């Protein structure tokens, strides 16, 4: 494919999402090999830098989820080594990875996003949990959605339907991060819209609708086959689907992302898409949303990943 020689897929890492990252890396490696590309897969350990300096890849496909894979750290190292890679640069990653910051950016360009409060663990304890949580419920109402301000795969995230459930949700959230994002829970249709830029500008793929069996798209629902029903494309009217696509492309552009991203949305009863968060290293497993969107668009995943690597290599 093109002028690519050998490419490197990074997978694994030390975040809570390591196992998912390994699965994503295996999938990307498989589809690239099927497309005729010479692929090497490596973890992010002490052997990585000497290995890439000894045998420089033409480009790197980052399938690291959470932590260094999405906060810009690994990408900063790749830039220090002058090795091209697929995806957003370190500065854009840092902004997108921090959910409250990303929400502020997209709100500034006119996108809707649920009203929220960001609460570090120290504040939660120092000011008195009962008083602070009581005010949150008064301000945002119920139900609420609590999740770590950084991270993915719904780890530490939960829906709160009564005030009595909020303290436990906060404790569960703080097990995965030091800062909690508490959002007003928008009831509606959950969709994910992937955006790809193959060199001619960002384009949204068909939205994927998510219908978890238990009503919550948690870690098990995301990565266990049969726990969630997906519709690709989503069961949306043409106008609402177009609004979702526009929202995802606008978020991608406003956050300074490139090559590939996935925006998670809730569409309310009026057909308004609400931005929830964006992922700069979307999952690529057999149950992940971006590959479903690629298939719904009539594209080949291996060819698309190969083209993204070509774009990165010539950057």
Automatic annotation (TrEMBL):
The protein depicted here goes by the name D-alanine--D-alanine ligase
The top EC class, named as a word, is ligase
Gene Ontology MF annotations: D-alanine-D-alanine ligase activity
Q: Which protein family is named in the record?
A: Belongs to the D-alanine--D-alanine ligase family.
Q: Where in the cell is it found?
A: Cytoplasm
- The ATP-grasp domain is annotated at 103-310
The organism that produces this protein has a lineage beginning with: Bacteria, Bacillati, Actinomycetota, Actinomycetes, Streptosporangiales
Which InterPro entries does the annotation name? ATP-grasp (IPR011761), ATP_grasp_subdomain_1 (IPR013815), D_ala_D_ala (IPR005905), Dala_Dala_lig_C (IPR011095), Dala_Dala_lig_N (IPR011127), PreATP-grasp_dom_sf (IPR016185)
Q: Cite the entry's keywords alphabetically.
A: ATP-binding, Cell shape, Cell wall biogenesis/degradation, Cytoplasm, Ligase, Nucleotide-binding, Peptidoglycan synthesis
Coiled-coil region(s):
none
Query: Which Gene3D superfamilies does its entry note?
Result: 3.40.50.20, ATP-grasp fold, A domain, ATP-grasp fold, B domain
Q: Hey, which pathway is this one from?
A: Cell wall biogenesis; peptidoglycan biosynthesis
PANTHER family per the UniProt record, alphabetical: D-ALANINE--D-ALANINE LIGASE, D-ALANINE--D-ALANINE LIGASE B
Reply yes or no: does the keyword Cell wall biogenesis/degradation apply.
Answer: yes
Species whose genome carries this gene: Nonomuraea typhae
What EC number(s) has UniProt assigned to this enzyme?
6.3.2.4
What's this protein's function? Cell wall formation.
| Catalysis: reaction(s) | 2 D-alanine + ATP = D-alanyl-D-alanine + ADP + phosphate + H(+)
